[in-house]
Amino acid sequence: MEITARDQLPEGEPLDASHFTAPASAHLLHRVSDHPVAVSVIRFPAGSRNHWHRHSGGQVLAVLEGEALVAVRGQPPRRLRPGDVATTPPGEEHWHGAAPEGPMAHLAITAGETTWLEPPAE
After folding, report:
1. Which of 5, 12, 29, 63 has the largest CB neighbor count within 10 A?
2. 68: CB partners within 8 A, 6+ apart
3. pTM above 0.85, yes or no
4. Which residues touch 95 (CB under 8 Å, ≥6 apart)?
5. What is the pLDDT of residue 33?
6. For 24-113, which CATH superfamily applies?
7. For the chain, which residues make up each domain, given as ranges?
8. What is the mean pLDDT of the segment spanning 73-88?
9. Is residue 98 exposed (0-12), middle (13-18) or buried (19+ Cβ within 10 Å)?
10. 10 near 65, Cβ under 8 Å?
11. What is the pLDDT of residues 15-61, one digit of tens each?
12. What is the DSSP string of 11-53?
């Protein structure tokens, strides 16, 4: 067992800007090379979001700080607050990001490959 003690959430490394409406960062907490699951803390600046995408094995998002907006293709965005959890099944197209009022951080548990699609409508 490996334990890493922290007194605050990590800032992380910049994510590929071509998949986000503004700079976002990720701190990878767990990934095993031969296992399709990754666990990361993702930070979004106020009002930013990622592009439409889907995960071959699904995704779980748990809001840690701030407020998030999440949307599933064909449905209006929903607001999530710290402690709220969103679960997307394999292949469901969705986007997520920070509400306009401030930055947001969420824990992302992602299974399988991510397929990136077009930016969300403003």
Report:
1. 63
2. 44, 61, 79, 80, 81, 84, 86, 96, 97, 98, 99, 104, 106
3. yes
4. 49, 50, 51, 52, 53, 70, 71, 120
5. 73
6. Jelly Rolls (2.60.120.10)
7. 24-113
8. 97
9. buried
10. no
11. 999 999 999 999 988 877 777 899 999 999 999 999 999 999 999 99
12. --EE--GGGBSS--EEEEEEE-TTSSEEEEEEEE-TT-BBPSE
| Predicted local distance difference test score (pLDDT) of residue 1 | 64
CA 78 – CA 36 distance, rounded (Å): 27
Say if residues 16 and 41 touch (Cβ distance below 8 Å): no
Locate 31 and state its tokens.
Answer: 């990934």
